[in-house]
Specification:
With 595 residues, this protein is an alpha+beta fold. Among the domains are: 84 residues, no CATH class; 142 residues, no CATH class; 145 residues, Nucleotidyltransferase, domain 5 (2-Layer Sandwich). It is built from 21 helices and ten strands. The strands form three sheets. A six-stranded mixed sheet has the order 9-8-5-6-7-10. Strands 1-2 form a two-stranded antiparallel ribbon. The longest helix has 18 residues. The N terminus and C terminus are likely disordered. It holds the Pfam family RVT_3. GO terms for molecular function: nucleic acid binding; RNA-DNA hybrid ribonuclease activity.
Length: 595
């Protein structure tokens, strides 16, 4: 809408557009997901309202008596309601994401929609206006480009790094320019191509009659990619090629995966020295201590505490000396090397003696401190006492500076032990609620429904898949069965999918109208039932859905391996027979036929 408003249209044409498209209300001044629907080139005034909303919500909370962890929770609750976003704690953050990278990943969602639905109204308008001479994948960003379209292209540039192609009929995929060779990385054929081959499509290396790969043509054009190509399975029923997002298992774009990719790209471009290696989850966020202790440890590692050395590094000319001994106040000095800190650590109730003078780095001490076992009389249990001692040293230092109150090393250690014990006891009352899974009941099949058991067997060494299926009546009487074996099968999942496709073809050939297909491949059955796309078997899934539409009644269900032993035997037998035949000849497909 905001892009259309940049075009001058008189009232007469505007009314024609409204009546043709069935538009009853005019928008543009409203908000969608908290943001204005349209805006011009001056965006500062529009988005100032969002900043004001954050400020107004945050000042409603009284933060005077909140700890650092409490303020962090308050800030997240305020911002998440608007919403705003956060960087993962395992990456050294507090939960607030890098906003520019996250914004790019959100924009990529619109770009993904254009890739996946080029026939929708939004795609038609944008592509019709901006992609007259180049397609959406290659159109450049011009200086005169509107703000909205510029953002969409930023999202597109993020997608391109991990965009792949799932082959259906191969008619819309360039043989040389599109990343279609792999389902894990955006891999293209290596060139340069011959002048007569540079405009070929993937469909040009498929056999016309069977829609299988043309081995002779592949060996002529792409000899080094023969094995990779044969591991891909095109559709036999004319599925269109589709863009896929390689980082996710579903091959659908998600903001989370896009954000991770944006951060990875940003890190590779960052030339600054990396920070000290810290296992943030194991050493800080997952230790048995209160959130306040975890945030405190995070501040120490990130040099966010107002210690003398940190203040000097920031140009704050305060007294950088230790309040206990007068030396330069560094992290290691205050918590380990100071004479006061040494006395406190000598009183620590650990099963081993701790010499703080041997500690050279606070960061390197974090994983070691988790192994310091407290003696039973302390009552701390399996929890760690290390963060509580460090916190007590920090509080003692602050009370001496701001309140002129002094504490002895013994009082400091007692305070650390008491607070740790109190927190451990408070955790005993927390109940853990477990989720209970209740399976959905399935509607009954028609009386004349035939049960079909399918299974696939696979060998990684030979990349051979054995397929087996059995048709039975409701009484258990065996109606028919079949088995096949195929080469260039890339995984057990592909073998299971090929078995279902072959079984459905066989069922249609013998005139079965109502069928209940059962398989022990849970992932595959879930994908078929939910119409979920799996890029590895994209074409096969399309064929299965196309075949399923030809039955009067069809249902799919998951069964255990013990219930599928007969189909499993047929699949293994077909596989073994083809493996034996390989030593004598080199068939593409061995069909044992119906038994």
């Amino acid at each position: 809408m905001m892009l259309i408003e940049e075009i001058l249209i008189n009232d007469e044409y505007w009314m024609i557009v409204k009546s043709t498209l069935g538009i009853e209300k005019e928008g543009g001044q409203e908000k969608y997901l908290g943001l204005p629907e349209s805006f011009g080139r001056r965006k500062k005034d529009v988005f100032t309202l969002i900043v004001d909303r954050i400020r107004q919500r945050s000042i409603k909370y009284s933060s005077r008596f909140l700890s650092s962890a409490g303020k962090l929770t308050m800030l997240k609750s305020v911002l998440s309601a608007i919403p705003t976003y956060a960087i993962a704690k395992e990456q050294g953050g507090l939960g607030f994401r890098e906003i520019q990278s996250f914004n790019d990943s959100l924009l990529a969602k619109i770009s993904w929609r254009i890739f996946q639905n080029p026939s929708c109204l939004l795609s038609k308008i944008l592509i019709g206006k901006y992609c007259k001479f180049q397609d959406f994948l290659h159109v450049p960003i011009k200086t005169s480009t509107s703000h909205g379209w510029r953002g969409i292209l930023i999202g597109r540039d993020l997608l391109v790094h991990q965009l792949g192609r799932a082959i259906g009929d191969g008619q819309t995929t360039s043989l040389w320019n599109d990343p279609w060779l792999s389902l894990s990385t955006p891999l293209r054929p290596t060139g340069p191509p011959r002048s007569s081959d540079k405009d070929l499509l993937v469909s040009d290396i498929l056999l016309d009659h069977s829609r299988e790969w043309n081995r002779e043509k592949i060996s002529e054009i792409l000899p080094f990619h023969l094995e990779e190509i044969q591991a891909l399975r095109p559709s036999r029923n004319g599925a269109s090629d589709s863009f896929i997002w390689l980082p996710t298992k579903s091959r659908e774009y998600s903001v989370k995966s896009g954000y991770h990719l944006a951060m990875e790209l940003k890190e590779t471009q960052n030339l600054q020295q990396p920070q000290p290696k810290v296992n943030w989850n194991a050493d800080i966020w997952q230790i048995k201590a209160s959130p306040k202790m975890k945030v405190f440890l995070w501040k120490i590692v990130q040099e966010a505490l107002p210690l003398g050395e940190n203040l000097l590094n920031r140009g704050i000319m305060e007294n950088p000396c230790c309040v206990h001994c007068g030396d330069l106040e560094t992290t290691e000095h205050l918590f380990f090397h100071c004479s006061f800190a040494q006395e406190v650590w000598k009183l620590a109730p650990f099963s081993i003696s701790i010499d703080p003078l041997l500690i050279q780095s606070f960061t390197s001490t974090l994983p070691i401190a988790k192994t310091w076992i407290c003696l039973p009389p302390t009552g701390v249990g399996s929890g760690t006492l290390f963060p509580w001692i460090v916190w007590a040293l920090w509080k003692t230092r602050n009370q001496l500076i701001f309140e002129e109150r002094t504490f002895t090393p013994a009082e400091t250690m007692i305070k650390a032990t008491v607070e740790a014990k109190e927190w451990q006891l408070a955790q005993l009352g927390i109940n853990v609620i477990k989720k209970i899974y209740i399976p959905n009941s399935r509607t009954r099949d028609p009386p004349n429904t035939i049960d079909c058991f399918t299974d696939g067997s696979w060998t990684e060494e030979h990349r051979i898949g054995g397929l087996g299926w059995i048709f039975t009546r409701a009484t258990g009487e065996r109606l028919d069965q079949g088995q096949e074996a195929e080469r260039f099968v890339s995984s057990p999942l592909m073998a299971e999918a090929l078995a279902i496709r072959s079984a459905l073809n066989h069922a249609l050939e013998i005139g079965i109208a109502c069928i209940h297909l059962k398989s022990d491949a849970q992932v595959l059955i879930r994908a078929i039932s939910s119409q979920e796309q799996i890029s590895e078997i994209y074409g096969i899934l399309f064929d299965i859905n196309a075949l399923a539409s030809m039955f009067t009644s069809i249902s799919f269900s998951f069964i255990s391996r013990s219930e599928n032993s007969l189909a499993d035997s047929l699949a293994k037998d077909a596989k073994s027979r083809l493996v034996a035949l390989i030593s004598q000849r080199d068939p593409l497909v061995f069909v044992a036929g119906n038994v």
